[in-house]
Amino acid sequence: MKKSTIIANFCSPIKTVWNIVTDNTAYAWRSNVVRIEVSDDGNSFTEFTNEGFETQFTITMKNPYERYEFDMKNKNMNGHWIGLFSKDGSGTKIEFTEEVEVANPIMNLFVKSYLKRQQETYVIDLRKSLGE
User: Fold this and answer.
1) Superfamily for 2-130?
2) Among candidates 120, 97, 121, which has minimal Cα distance to 32?
């Protein structure tokens, strides 16, 4: 398993950051996602990238304003994502960790740098959506 963690601080209140991150029906702020389909019960969703690649997610924990977790899988990998949220003064600190396993040994060489780029893009997009 390969693991990557990103930590970032935002000026926005924790409730605002939480609501943006956990609302899978409002994804226009995500630069690398063109569509998200949410299950009827809201416990799973599928993301589609600009290239048409799809990843399935199953929410495993959702403690408002504290912790959000899900399992994820696509044809290249499976793994788990943990999002920790905490107050930082009047702002918010996030710590997002992804741990994935890939079947292809060659992809295994590059997956950690890929995860890091994805996380950096996510934080940049989130910061823009917050107007920061």
Assistant:
1) START domain (3.30.530.20)
2) 121
